[in-house]
Amino acid sequence: MGKNYIESAKLVDKNTLYTSAEAMDLVVKTSKAKFDETIELAIRLGVDPRHADQQVRGAVILPHGTGKTVRVLVFAKGEKAKEAEAAGADYVGAEEYVERIQKENWFDFDVVVATPDMMGLVGRLGRVLGPKGLMPNPKSGTVTFDVAKALSDIKAGKVEYRVDKTSIIHVPIGKKSFGAEKLANNFRSLMEAVVKAKPAAAKGQYIKSVVISSTMGPGIKINPTKVLE
């Protein structure tokens, strides 16, 4: 462990469940790297993702964005392709991008949007896009004919959240440079969305644990029963 990490870890009590406000202050103080570290949440849920009725997935627009420039690939043709280009898509096309991804292992994009009529084509990429969390999905608003709105939302700071097979959601909520207040606003928006997405089939405690950390910093535990306070 590096010197900065050891110094940062001294500021965090591993046995304390911090309030969200305390945690935002701490995560900024413990971000000691020379670059603008990403601040990420790990939320463990009381769900069993092996069951279809206990999946937790969605998207939310963070009020202050993520601090990251997002590259968007849009699968569309005709007027919808022109609409996507006008709305600021980084890449727009169809078969040529399917081929490029399959043959060249090309992944110079962060989000994939597709019009519904293109999903038959995009489906061929399921095995490579799925494991990377890049497969377009109606629930996250990335399968739509309103490509202009989808692009506007994504560029404004929309993030997707999805529970993984270990029942944990990993999602970034901003950068160290945002400061504690903006991070707190983004944190609340995300937690409200996750709480709202609670499946009816989920029993017992839904939010089991919440840990926030910077790219190079220690984990800071947030009281899971008070995430919306």
From TrEMBL:
This is Large ribosomal subunit protein uL1. Belongs to the universal ribosomal protein uL1 family. The keyword Glycosyltransferase does not apply. Pfam families: Ribosomal_L1. InterPro entries: Ribosom_uL1_bac-type, Ribosomal_uL1, Ribosomal_uL1-like, Ribosomal_uL1/biogenesis, Ribosomal_uL1_3-a/b-sand, Ribosomal_uL1_CS. Protein L1 is also a translational repressor protein, it controls the translation of the L11 operon by binding to its mRNA. Binds directly to 23S rRNA. The L1 stalk is quite mobile in the ribosome, and is involved in E site tRNA release. GO terms for molecular function: rRNA binding; structural constituent of ribosome; tRNA binding. Keywords: Repressor, Ribonucleoprotein, Ribosomal protein, RNA-binding, rRNA-binding, Translation regulation, tRNA-binding. Part of the 50S ribosomal subunit. One of its GO terms (cellular component) is large ribosomal subunit. It comes from Clostridium liquoris. CDD domains: Ribosomal_L1 (cd00403). GO terms for biological process: regulation of translation; translation. Gene3D superfamilies: 3.30.190.20, 3.40.50.790.
